[in-house]
Amino acid sequence: MIFKRTQSALFVIAALGLVACGDKQEKTTTTEPQALTKKDAQQFVEKAQQDIGELLIPAAQAEWAYQTYINQDTAALSAYFNEKLTAKATNYAKESAKFNSVEVDADTRRKLNLMTNGLVMPAPEDPEKSARLAKIGSELGGMYGAGKYCRNEDECFSLTDMSNMMATERDPKLLLELWEGWRQVSPPMKALYAEQTELANLGAQELGKKDLSEMWRGSYDMEADAFAQELDRLWGQVKPFYEALHCHVRAELGEQYGEDIVPQDKPIPAHLLGNMWGQSWGNIYDVVKPQQEMQVIDVTEALKVHNYDEVKMVKQAESFFSSLGFEPLPDTFWERSMFTKPSERDAVCHASAWNLDNVDDLRIKMCIQKNGEDFATIHHELGHNYYQRAYNKQPTIYQGSANDGFHEAIGDTISLSITPKYLKEIGLADTIPDASNDIGMLLKLALDKIAFVPFGLMVDQWRWKVFSGEITPEQYNTGWWELREKYQGLRAPVDRPADAFDPGAKYHVPANTPYTRYFLAHILQFQFHRTLCEIAGDEGPVHRCSIYGSKEAGTALNNMLEMGQSKPWQEALESLTGKPEMDATAILDYFAPLKTWLDEQNQGRQCGW
Ligand code: X8Z
Ligand code: ZN
């Protein structure tokens, strides 16, 4: 990703990849001046990096100020810098086309391509339109960040409050109230979202793209349509497993809530899965767990018993990376990060990781809850920070992950090593449950990881259709639910009002953060884990492997991280795993014993929706 310091904040600039855009190159050849040389191209790239680089720090600072203290002034500052940065980056993207027919070295070509294909919200040339686009972006982000649900005048809940309740409460009426309540945040976003789509499509078209969808799909070192097919292929690999999990979960939810609330031949109502968006289901393990008693370590409980506070949780995560040979985080990380929700002011609680100076001003921003879920999320965020630090010696334009899925996968890969063995080693568990408990452990994790896969896919399937015009503003919500049903087998628990805009109630939609990255990350992290376990010499089953303490694994990982996006992601993947393809057999193999168990449970059940 060029020019992007955060993983989810500075939304104007995308994670970049390379696309050899054949068509466009030919279109422009005849009108290009003949005199441009390879040297001109190199100088152009240098100048662009420097010019954009200068704006990056103040833009990131303004964005940080806004997200940690939402008010009118910080909103204006964030919009101001976003506009400047987007305009500059879009101009350079446009200008880079003049080198399309110039013969340049491979490295310069890659940089030019990254420049052209990496914008998330390309700005239209018209300054009024570009200012409007930036303003909408910051407004949408602020609406989400400041969102809450008020039951009545004196009883309001933040999203964090509601997420906690969705995780633990089992009264379906309360769950429905919270589910519907949070979704009141988004109807006011709908018109803005439609306007933003038009403006950004215009920006994409001015860059020679059909629409923004082509731009988003086109940053993966392959043709946009080929990439979409690659996603279908990977989903096809995981789908039978997901269907088995869905079948079991629906049956158990039917037992818990009754078949009038959970009919056994329909999609599952989305409010009962322990998560506001039904995206990961680990929180309802207690509802769907095996009948046979299984010892599964409750990390939330362990953190409580051992008096972990937010800082101690982060320190513990840092020490995992240190055990692999990564340098400790800088003092400024501890001074400047936001670990808890500030009182008395609005802030964006959705977790993110930042590098504000592109060197070592690393920070995370989170409203940490003292539970196992957030313990994993802390590792996720630190994965971003160590990646950012690892590629900080690359030229600005290569300071990004191999593809955006890699960025999202690193911390999760480390989290897969939070096994009972590891927890015992750090004193968070007293004993290591024996193998007869593995099904419990695998089910708990599959509820998070396998359940997530179709959600990770459907969010951008929706956005791509919105950007291409296949889903119109009138169809925003129905189109969303069609995809929720198709991929996840979920449905809205109640008829949705005509003005509902349920996609807007998911952070990444108003924040304009592409979402396919998380789908990819859920495939990639199991590939990385498999390889790193081999390197670490762990001989046990891969679901019991922890790479904690393995300097060899740390070095292998770091070697890939240091590449940034200087090479196509296929090469980065091959450098670590020995194979240039994304491959879902790693996640399937990891959970294989569970699949056998699920198939047994599902015998005689009617699966599907
Ligand atoms: O947004 C995130 C991270 C920040 S990059 C906390 N995740 C996705 C989500 O919360 O929807 C991690 C998993 C999926
Ligand atoms: Zn992330």
Automatic annotation (TrEMBL):
Any single biological process term in GO: proteolysis
Record-listed Zn(2+) 2 binding positions: 380, 384, 408
Broad enzyme group: hydrolase
PROSITE patterns in the cross-refs: PEPTIDASE_M2, PROKAR_LIPOPROTEIN
EC number: 3.4.15.1
Pfam families membership: Peptidase_M2
Keyword Disulfide bond: yes
GO molecular function, one term: carboxypeptidase activity
Protein name, entry field: Peptidyl-dipeptidase A
Organism listed in the record: Aliiglaciecola lipolytica E3
